[in-house]
Amino acid sequence: MEYVFLLFAFVCGLTVKLIGIPPLVGYLVAGFLLNFAGYSLTDDLTQIANLGITIMLFTIGLKLNIRDLSRREVWAGSVTHTLLWVGIITCLVYGLATIAASLTNKLSWQSAALIAFALSFSSTVCVVKVLEESGETKTRHGRLAIGILVMQDVFAVIFLVAATGKLPSVWALALLALFPAMPIINKMINKSGHGELLPLTGFILALGGYQLFELVNIKGDLGALIFGIMLAQHEKSSELAKSLLSFKDLFLIGFFLTIGLTALPDLSMVMLAIVFCLFIPLKAALFFGLFTSLRLRGRTSYLSSLVLSNYSEFGLIVGALAVSLGLLENNWLVVIALSVSVSFVFTSVLYRNSHSQYHSYKGIIRRFEKPKRLKEDIYPTLHNAEFLVLGMGRVGRGAFNALSKLAEVNVWGMDADRMKVKELVEEGLSVICGDGEDVDLWYNLDIKHVRLVLLALPSIQDSINITSQLKNAGYSGKIAAIARYEDEVAYLLENGVDKVFNFFNEAGLGFAEESLAYANEQH
Q1: Which long-range contacts (CB under 8 A, 24 or more apart) does 481-484 make?
Q2: pTM value > 0.85
Q3: Which residues, 6 or more positions from 48, have their beta carbon under 8 angstroms from its beta carbon?
Q4: What ranges do the domains of the chain cover?
Q5: Dist CA 438 CA 377 (whole Å)
Q6: What is the distance between the alpha carbons of residues 222 and 209, in angstroms, rounded to a whole number?
């Protein structure tokens, strides 16, 4: 039966992708259609969904710098937003329930507050998926959004402990033994190589963290996240996260299906869910106001607020617990589930054009900026750069090194990962930190001497967006990009890129040329 569910999810995901909508919207639709057709949620599908969430939280931890959580904009923004949101939405939900008494039973202030708290979370699954698809997990707004999500996850765990009275076991102190065990775990990752053992190692660590925390009465998902954070500084953390990417996406299909299969709403529930979704712009406005008041740039505030403008799977967990404790009626859980589903669609569709939206309304958005900038938001400078490499991964670093060997050529690099940039600068390389899709960055950089921009990025959509931003900023030089597949080459050329290199073809050509040159030297 699970095969039928996944097959139908594939059909719906492919269908919506063909009309330009993210596949996860199709997975959600598939869940509701299967529910409507009389199918129900199975234990196996629930396990698949839970596994997807566990792996996802582990990979988030692998990419998370713990210092990001200590930043004022993260902890102050998340705490303040939750308090303001719960206060405002409690009043609105209580008033709505009073007015619409014919559609719903009488609601107490306590129940209204629980609903507001359930809706205060933003979806870790949806946000991370959207950021990964757009290649923005390491950008300033991406790191801010993920930091907020982690803080909200902590709030959820605290609530679950307080509501159930399920305190951690005294054996939870034994988890401190993980710190002296880290050298052994790190050695195990190193010995796993680069093949099929690496993702298996990731599974063992993620599920091991989950089970260890469950054994001491702490939510297992938190254990997977903490295991990932502890391994984030490992040299293979990025490779480990990439090796789990396809598995995580596959298992998360089960999660999206479970939302639709949870319950089938009636007309009154649909109407209430639509009203709840009308609160989403308020959620975004609160985030935006808080971020700008904390001196973040308008663009960072706007993009972070937009991607966080949804409801969360944690809201379902909170709602389910409230129902089991008799604090909330079951129909409200269905309303929350439907609201979560619709909010995913809202974020997935709207964020696709977020950069062009900012470009259109940046004059209005930047009015809310504070005159004094945070240190991370001060624009970098380029000194007479002639070549600029965007994306300092393995391909970008190789291009940078090759160009640097040319005589009398000034080569600079740029990457959105601040920690990577710091390491490269310490090596003595001319590298700046920046998000190539930030049109404000290009307006503030001196690029008049740049003859060629090399886009060494894995996502062709990112390359197209950056090409557009460069031309909007008046750049008149040449732009080159890499592609992995032949159909991507034509697509990039159609969208303004001057030269496209097929990654695999060019790698083979370079290998042949260098091997031939070496062979000739031997003779």
Answers
A1: 481/454, 481/455, 481/457, 482/395, 482/455, 482/456, 482/457, 482/506, 484/458
A2: no
A3: 2, 251, 253, 254, 255
A4: 2-35+47-368, 379-522
A5: 12
A6: 8
CA 112 to chain centre: 30
Cα 469 from Cα 490, distance rounded (Å): 20
Sign of the CA dihedral 103, 106, 109, 115?
negative
Largest CA distance in the chain: 92
CATH number of 379-522: 3.40.50.720
- Residue owning tokens 């599908």: 45
Three-state SS across 10-50?
Answer: HHHHHHHHHCCCCHHHHHHHHHHHHHHCCCCCCHHHHHHHH
Whose structure tokens read 């937003």? 81
Q: Residue 22 and residue 31: Cα distance in Å, rounded?
A: 15
Neighbours of 208 (CB within 10 A): 15
Please enumerate, as own/partner, the contacts of 31-35 that have beta carbons within 8 Å and a separation of 24 or more: 31/256, 31/257, 31/258, 31/259, 31/260, 31/261, 31/341, 32/260, 32/264, 32/341, 33/8, 33/260, 34/5, 34/8, 34/257, 34/260, 34/261, 35/260, 35/261, 35/262, 35/263, 35/264
Q: Which CATH number fits domain 2-35+47-368: 3.30.420.40, 3.40.50.150, 1.20.1530.20, 2.70.70.10?
A: 1.20.1530.20
Per DSSP, 216 falls in state T
The tens place of each residue's pLDDT in the chain, 523 residues long, gives 667 888 888 888 888 888 777 787 788 788 888 888 888 878 888 888 888 888 878 887 887 777 777 888 999 999 999 999 999 999 998 888 777 665 556 678 888 898 999 999 998 878 888 887 777 877 888 889 988 988 887 787 777 767 766 677 888 888 888 888 888 888 888 888 887 888 888 889 999 988 988 888 877 878 888 888 888 888 888 888 888 877 877 787 887 788 777 766 778 788 888 889 999 999 999 999 999 999 999 999 999 999 999 998 777 777 777 777 777 877 787 788 888 878 888 888 888 888 888 888 988 999 999 888 888 888 888 888 889 999 888 888 888 888 888 767 789 999 988 888 988 999 988 999 988 888 888 888 888 888 899 998 888 888 888 898 888 888 888 999 988 887 888 888 888 889 888 776 666 655 655 565 656 665 5
Burial 309-326 (b: 16+ CB within 10 A, else e): bbbbbbbbbbbbbbbeee
Q: Could you tell me how far CA 452 lies from the centroid of its own chain? A: 30
What are the CA-CA distances from residue 358 to residues 77, 379, 380, 439 (Å)? 22, 18, 21, 9
Query: What end-to-end distance do the CA atoms of the chain give, in Å?
Result: 65
Whole-number Å distance between alpha carbons of 415 and 491: 24
C-alpha 301/C-alpha 366 separation (Å) is 10
Give CA–CA dist 65/112, Å, rounded.
36
Q: At what angle do helices 237-262 and 124-133 cross, to 10 degrees?
A: 130
